[in-house]
UniProtKB/TrEMBL annotation:
Chain intervals for the UniProt region annotation (Disordered): 1-23
Alphabetical keyword list: Cobalt, Isomerase, Metal-binding
Protein name as catalogued: Methylmalonyl-CoA epimerase, mitochondrial
Catalysed reactions, as listed in the record: (R)-methylmalonyl-CoA = (S)-methylmalonyl-CoA
């Protein structure tokens, strides 16, 4: 009983979000808004095997393989109800996924994609805040909508894709 009572009395307190303070008070006013998580992209060395895992083993709804030459990738989308997984495989020698897989032989998480309501306003404001964008203009992404990528070194090691909602 001595150890238990000491643990109960010396346990550190954990700060909690106060109900009187709104969580959104710390968010600066922007001309654009972040939306929902659209997908998490995973680079895979064998697209058919990965597609089969999610479809045949896990029972998910899985798209056909689609080539996106402008981005240098083949994509497959796995529907998860509240979001999607995007399986990525290199298309061509200059594919960014090819270089990713050279460093990560078994694949791994490549990027996250978050929707925004105004991609042009987001680009302008992010540039002002010294966040590097990996292209001068948005490109059309896998969903037929404009997308941009933010430099991972400016996003705590995560490659972030923003997609026009």
């Amino acid at each position: 009983s001595g150890l238990l009572s000491r643990l109960q009395t010396s346990a550190p307190t954990v700060p909690t979000l106060s109900s009187s303070k709104s969580f959104s008070q710390n968010i600066p006013n922007c001309l654009w808004k972040l939306g929902r998580l659209n997908h998490v992209a995973i680079a895979v060395p064998d697209l058919e095997k990965a597609q089969s895992l999610y479809k045949d083993v896990l029972g998910a709804q899985v798209s056909e393989i689609v080539a996106l030459p402008e981005h240098g990738v083949y994509t497959v989308f796995v529907e998860l109800g509240n979001t999607k997984l995007e399986l990525l495989h290199p298309l061509g020698e200059k594919s960014p996924i090819a270089s990713f897989l050279q460093k990560n032989k078994t694949g791994g998480m490549h990027h996250i994609c978050i929707e925004v309501d105004d991609i042009k306003a987001a680009m302008t404001e992010l540039k002002e805040k010294k966040i590097r964008i990996l292209s001068e203009e948005p490109k059309i992404g896998a969903h037929g909508k404009p997308v941009i990528f933010l430099h991972p070194k400016d996003c705590h090691g995560v490659l972030v894709e923003l997609e026009q909602a």
